């Protein structure tokens, strides 16, 4: 499924303006006449990750519409070319090749799981197609062609673990998705537990298609941890939280999660299931600032008032597009190396998440992060961490000194 457009709203404006072109200033006419800049998007609108992907797709459309309504970039409109990758690695690689080789897009904004990122990253590297990965993830990617706007474990997971150690006890049980995100995040959890003087009773990994967690709940009961650390991912894994609540465990053993609430969990689940699960992200839709209110109201105006489940994945997507736009404007070009140079200048934008700055050495963002827990379908903000650094990646990656580095570093525990 592909959607190739300048955007519905912009198209309507183009149609309305056609009859009055003579009255328009030359620079405005030129913005519509020039060859559009091509922005490619690869996200899961359907499949196991559709829960997270649908809002990211909507945010992409919203951001592109906003830029086009302001005149586009460099006097050119932005043409959005997007594919529903349907949570399929085969489709990710197929569409990535199409965008890079056939449609020759100027930038890619996309990928949700780390597996999808690693499937398409080499394609974009080979073809020098600039790639923004806008997902909260396990950290460590070090690639001059890639810019990561989502938070990393040092910015978020460390705070959840430290909160658990101080509030709940010294013994944790880790449950995580069985692919690189889950494995590497679990390693960070173990490291942070050890650094804080705690222990890990056991770690269980679950493929993305697992929906029954009864045996896992029994193992956790037998281990009797002080708290559970979860890095479960996607719609199927959401079943764990319902089953945990149904088993009566919610009131006995608290949970800290690195992913919970990034989809529609707060609207789709009972408050008995969701309330009290501790999380830490780069943005929550209940933050009390003008940028958040404007973003939420703008998205609701476009997609409906019932859109109340926005999260970091969505604003990180917005951040990625706006950082790229700022770099294109600064570079005065969409040419690959010129835009990278602009991004490596320490460029920053103000977004719903606050001030978001690109770290030149790691190609990750420096930003404020927040700890929160659900309370009656709202996010109760518990703590704020200004200027959070991607120090997990920064400890190994310096693309200014070593621009040819192309790998993902993993924690040394």
Q: Can you give a write-up of this model?
A:
This protein has 413 residues and is of the alpha/beta class. The chain has 2 domains: 2-152 and 289-369 and 389-408, Response regulator (Rossmann fold), CATH 3.40.50.2300; 157-257, Rossmann fold. Helices cover 41% and strands 22% of the residues. Strands 1-3-2-4-5-7 form a 6-stranded mixed β-sheet, with helices on both faces. Strands 12, 13, 14, 15 and 16 form a 5-stranded antiparallel β-sheet that branches. A hairpin with a 2-residue loop joins strand 13 and strand 14. The longest helix has 20 residues, at 50-69. The protein is globular, with a radius of gyration of 21 Å.
Mean pLDDT: 91
Number of domains: 2
Helix fraction, binned, reads 40-55%
Corresponding CATH architecture of the largest domain: 3-Layer(aba) Sandwich
Q: Briefly note the CATH topology name of the largest domain.
A: Rossmann fold
Q: Regarding CATH, which class of the largest domain?
A: Alpha Beta
Fraction of residues in β-strands? 15-25%
